Amino acid sequence: MDTLAGLLREYRVAAGLTQAGLAEKAGLSEQAISLLERGTRRRPRVDTIEALGVALGLNAEQAERLMNVAKPPRAAGAKGAQATGAAASGAAGARRTHAGAEAPGTAGTRAGARASGVAGTRAGARASGVAGARASDVAGATGMQSSGAHASGARASGVQASGAEGPGAGRAGVAAAAALGAAVAAGGVPVAAGGVAAEVGRVLPRQLPPTLSDFAGRASEVVELVKVFEVAQRPEKVQLAAVTGMGGVGKTALAVHVAHLVGDSFPDGQLYLDLRGYGPGTPLSPVDALSQLIRSLGLDDDRGVPSGINELAGLYRSRLAGQRVLILLDNANSASQVLPLLPGVPGSAVIATSRRALTTLPGFRHIALAPLSEADSVELLATIAGRQRVTAEDAAARSIARLTGRLPLAVRLIGARLAARPSWPIEHMVRQLKDEHRRLDEFGTGESGVRANIAGTAEFLANSNQALDRKAAAALGLLGLPDGSDLSALTASHLLDISENDAEQILERLVDLNLLSSGVPGRYRMHDLIRTYARERATQTLSEGARTDALTRVLQHYTAVAWRSQQLTHPDSRRLELASPPARPVAVLPDVPTAMTFLDHERANILALARQASASAELRGLVPELAIAFFGYVEVRSRWIEMRAIDRIARDIAGDLGYERLAAWLEHDLAIPDAEGGDLEPSLDHLRAGLRMFQAIEDLPGQARCCTSLSYVLELMGRLDEALEWAEEALALSLRIGDQTVVGISHLALGRLHSRRGEYELARESFDLSLVLAEKSGNPRSLAKRLQIAGQAYMEAGHHVAAMEMERKSFDIFAQLEDGNAQAECLQHLATSSLALGDPVAAAEQAEAGLRLAHAIGNQQREGLLLIELGRIRAATGDRVAAETAWRQAATALHDFPHDEAVAQAFLTEHQPGS
Question: Residue spans with biased composition (Low complexity) (predicted)?
C-alpha cells in the first residue's frame, strides 16, 4: 500500500533530485521535505502537494496518485471523538498537544515529568542540552529538527532550559520540557539507541563533498544504489555497496550523488575518507584510516586512540554501534584496504569506490561503472559549455564524446575549456584531440583517455597568448610533485619560487580549467589522475635537479614555519639551537594561536612530505631537522601519533647520516608519546638510549633533559626513590652548565617528589625556586604550567588555599594564551579545592565552566574527569540524583579511558542505596 513518504521519495529519486533540490524547485523548505519523507508529517496542505507535483514533473496519473495518498482517511465511526457539540468529521481523532497535556507516544509526559529522551526534565531543570528552549520554539513538533549530535545521555553541563535552573525557574522551563517531549515523540528530535535524546553540542560529521551540479546520466545505477540504502528501521545486515571502474569514469561523482540522496536516512552523520589507493602518494594504511574515522566520530584526544590495528578496529566499531552513519570510502586499492573499515553491526552503511574490482568483499552490492553513453556525454558537455552552442555543432559534440572516451572527467575538462572560450568552435577542439602527438598513450584505453585530455588542457594553456595561462601550464608539473592532500598559495609559492600573490593567480587559473579544485578558500586540491599527469610532465620537462630543488624549498618552508612555532611555544628549548637559518622569509606568525592554526591546516601535508622525502637520497637529509622543529606543535596539540610517526623516520635517517645530536634528541622525544599513552617501559628504554647517545657526544644539556624526563617517567611508575635520584642528577648537571630552564624543571620535579613523600617543606622550597626561575625567564607558558603542577601537588597534599592561589594564577595566564585545554584542567583543580574548603556553589560553577571548555575543544577525557568532580559536588549538597547522573555521564565520556571510567563506576557503586 502506498504511503506519502514512500511515494514522494520514489518520485524524487526518479527525478534525480536531492531533498534540497526538490525543496528549491517546489518553493518549500528542505526540512519540510525531510519531514514528509520520514513520515513525520502525513497530511500536508493541498497546495503543497500540487507544488511538489509540478517540481517533480509528474504526469496527471502520478499527480493524482500522490494527492490520493496525502488525503486524510475517512473518520466514520471514529472512536474517541468528543461529543461536545460537533462530530470529528474527517479527523483521525488526534488532539493538539500543549504544555502540561499528555501527548500520544510520550508515555504520559507532563510538565515536570521525564520527557521521552529528556533526562530528568523538570520545571526549571536542565533539558538534555537544549539551549534556551521555549515553548514557541518547539510547539508543533512535526516541524522540529535537531542540529545537535547524538550521545548516550544528557550532559549535566547542558545549557539550562529557558536560561534558568532550580525551583521557581518559571513556566518557560515547564513549557519547553513538555514541548520537547512531544517533539521527541513526534520524531522531530533525533533519538539515539536506547531511546536517549540526541545531545546538542557535538557537531555531527557531515563530510560528504558537494554533489556535482552538472551530474549527468547513471539513472539505473542511481536507482540500484538507492535501493541498497533504503530506510530500514531494523536492518538485518550492514548496508554495503562498491562502485568500481577505470580512472575518470565517475565513481566518486556517482557515490557522492547517491550518498546525498540517501543521507537523511543516516541521521548520525556521513563520513568521507580518501584512501589514496592509487596515489600519487602513499596509500592510507588501515591504521591511519581508522584513526581518522575515529576522530571524525568525536574522539579528538590522541591519548584515547590506540595504535594497534585490532584495537583501533574494535574502538571504531564500538563507536558506530547503535548509530546510523553513512561512510564513503573513496579510492581504495584493494579489498584489504576496505575490510578493516567496515562496521561490525547493522545500522551503518558503506559505499566504497575503487579502480579495481572488490569482488572479494563479502556482502557488497557491486556496481561496475562503464563510460557514459554518447547521449549522456553530449548532455554533460551541453550543461557545461552551453546547450545552444552544442546543439549548433551536434556532430562536433558527438566527436568530443567519442574522443574523450565518454569519461566524465575528460568531458568535464573539455566542457570547462570551451565555456571559458565562448568564441572557440567545438570543431577546433575536435581537431586538437585528433592529433596523436597530443595524446600520451592510446586514447580511450586505461588512463590514457584522461591523460590525453589533461595534456590537451595543458597545451592550450601553454599556447595561449595570455601570460598567465602560459605560467599556469609551466607550473602544473611542479605543483604535482609533493605528496599531500592539498596546497596553499604559500606552499605553492615555495614550490614555484615566486611570490604568494603570483602563485595564487596561477592556482586560480588552474581552478578555472578544472585542473585544480578549491573546496575551501585558499586551499587547492589536485585530482590524483591529474597529479599523475603533472608528475609525468615534470619528468619530461624538468631536470631532476629542478624537481629536487622545488621539493627542497617546500621542506625548508615547513621546517622554518615549525621552528617559528617552537620559538613561540618553547622559547627556551635547547632544540632551537639545531635550527638552520631560513632560506626565505618565514610566514608571519605573531602568536601561538596563529601558529597552531597554521600548522593544523598543514599537519597532514608535512607528514606526507616527510615520508616522501625519506625515500629520496637527495631529500632525506632534511627530514630530521623538520621532525625536531615540529616538536613545538605536536607537543602543545598532544598529537602523539604524528609525533611518533615522524620521529621514528627521522631518528633512523639521522642515525644513518651521522647526525648524532639530532638522533639523540629524536630518541629522547620518542619517549613522550609512549609515556602519554601509558607505555612506560618503552618510554624508559627510549630515555636511557637517548641518555647514552648524549653522553657519547658529551652533550650535557641533552643529558640533563634526559635526567628530568627519566625522573618524570619513574615517578609515574611509582619508583619514587629512583625518580628522586634522577631529579637530583638533572639539577646538578643543569647547575654545572648554567641551564636555568632545566634547573627550574629539576626543582619542579623535586617539588612533586618531596610532596608525594610527605616532605612538604622541601616541596614548597623546590616549587618556589622553580617559579622564580620561570618568572625571570619571561616565558608565560612555562610559568603557567609550573604554577598548575605546583597547585595540583598542593591540592593533593590538602593545602587547598595555596593550591587555589597557584591554580588561579595559572588559569589567568593560560587564558591570555588562549589555551582552553589547560584552562579546563585548572578549573578542575579549583573545583576540587573549593569543595574541600566548604564552598560547593563556587565548586559547581568552576566545574561547569571547565566542562564547557573541555567540550568545546573535544577533550573527552577532561570532560569526563570534570563530570566526576561535579558528581562529588552534587553528592556533597545532598542531590543524589544529580550526582548519579553526572557520574553516569562521566562513565560514558570516559569509555575510551578505562582507568578513569573505573573511577566513575566506583562512585556510582559507592553511592547505591544500601551501600
Answer: 143-158
